[in-house]
Amino acid sequence: MSTPTAARRDPHVRFGIEVGAERRDIALRPDVRVGDAMRSALLPVGDEGVLVLDSTGRAVPLDTAVGAVVADGGLLHVVRRAVPRGRAKRWAAERQDVVLRRPPVQTGALAVATALGAGTAVAALLPGTLGAWSATVAAVALGIGALAAVLVAAAGPAAAVAGPTLGFATTVLALDAADPATARLSVTAGLVVATLLAGARLLVSRSSGTPDDLAGPLFAALAAVAVVQAVTLLAALPSVVGAAALVGAAPVVVRLVPQLSIAVPDEQLIDLSRVSRTALSVRTPRVRSLGRVNERLVLRTVASAERRKDVATVVATVLPVALLPWVLATAWSAGSTTAAGVAGSVLVTCVVGAFALGPRGQRGRAARWAPRVGAAVVLVEAALLAPVPDRWRVATTIGALVLALAFAAVVPAVARGQRSVLLSHLGDRVEGLAVALSLPAALCAADLVDTLRKVASG
Predict the structure, then answer these.
(1) Comparing C-alpha atoms, which of 358, 394, 392, 393 is closest to residue 374?
(2) What's the Cα-to-Cα distance from 398 to each of 72, 356, 380, 386, 387, rounded to whole Å?
(3) Which of 241, 264, 337, 349 is a good FRET partner for 115, with 20 to 30 A between their CA atoms?
């Protein structure tokens, strides 16, 4: 009885080489080097700036064996790297240990334009600061700068900040705030224009394919502020109500940002139609596979989500720090024993608790430390504005600073201790309570109930 012989295995590796729009299919032994394979295909891999990439976008060393970098039926790409302009950049490109640290000139110009726009907007809100002719010239110049920063696709992420800022300053200059009512109207219109410019910048960045992780969070933040300001203006409510609503919503935003920042494309998800089998799926035609998961694309998606999360966390921390003194001054103006005064104290406690306990499980320095620094600043602001005698104000401020530093030092140490699980569950409950009570406490601190009663009574 004879035994069947095993099929003989082909010792060659078949793969394709793409050079621009041309493709060359070859078959070589697995031990042949990549450089020799490219030279046998008459490709100039030895020239300056020519790279060999695999399907994931990684550079393939020329002295590596073909069988170690490409499988049977795989694909390699030969591309030419763009030659850097300038002698210093060409010299740095040839050295692997040299990194050019000077920021681009365009980013610096946009930063200067943002600072000028913010300063001009503040000066325009002060009556009598700018003349009619100078305000008109400044409005035209800032408007042109805003449109250029938003519509130019290659402006970079700094344009997401410069465009809305210049648009806000242009609107404030055009409306000429002469009294508090006109100033409030000009601020609302400026926020609406800034939101539109931020949305336009987001559309430009997405349509051009240039990554801009600042545009999305800034557009959402400006839209929220503009909507709140417009609603309070149309409802004839005091402007402090809008500020209180933003302060109370900040802990909720910080809590939800990690879940809202990640956006995974469909091609990076598991194709359940291929890995699952049911009575109906076996009778249907086999669907086309989505292909292998690109590791480089996954890392880029995660890094983009982390940057969006950091930007949103910083914005949600800066807003309550900037607006809380206004809310507390209104709440404590009639004393700390009134309903608004007690709500102001509860608001400070909720904001500090949510900002201090929320970042315990976050990744990244900005997501962990920005809310904690914001909590410390909120404590200092509350100590400075607290309705206490003047002789106790300095001691209260120093006590708030010591409390903030002690809390910042104790929380990481407790989290690494043996009882960190029990304390973490307790911290989760306290954080959830602080997040749930922050918005109602903020609205009560702004005396919204009494305001609505007066509006309803006419």
Answers:
(1) 358
(2) 70, 19, 8, 13, 16
(3) 241
Pairing relationship of beta strands 13-19 and 22-28 according to DSSP bridges: antiparallel
Q: What is the mean pLDDT of residues 65-72?
A: 82
Q: Could you report how far apart the first and last alpha carbons of the chain are, in Å? A: 108
- DSSP alpha helices (H): ranges in 95-211? 105-125, 132-151, 159-175, 180-208
Q: Identify whether 40 is part of a domain.
A: yes
3-class SS string, 393-423: HHHHHHHHHHHHHHHHHHHHHHHCCCCHHHH
Residue 245 lies in a domain: no
Q: What pLDDT was estimated at residue 389? A: 74
> Any idea which residue has 């409802």 for tokens?
235
Half-sphere exposure of 288 (CA within 13 A, CB side): 2
Indicate the number of domains in the chain.
Answer: 1
Residue 419: exposure state from Cβ atoms within 10 A (0-12, 13-18, ≥19): exposed
Whether 59 is in a domain gets the answer yes
pLDDT at 197 over 50: yes
pLDDT tens digits for range 424-451 = 777 778 888 888 999 999 999 888 877 7
What is the model's pLDDT at position 31? 85
Tell me whether residue 287 is in a domain.
Answer: no
CATH classification of the domain holding 41:
3.10.20.90
On the 0-12 / 13-18 / 19+ scale of CB atoms within 10 A, 400 is buried
C-alpha 166/C-alpha 215 separation (Å) is 15
- The predicted-structure confidence for 268-297, as pLDDT tens digits, reads as follows 555 555 555 666 655 666 655 555 555 666
Is pLDDT larger for residue 199 or for residue 125?
Answer: 199
Q: Which of 37, 23, 21, 439 is nearest to 244 (CA)?
A: 439
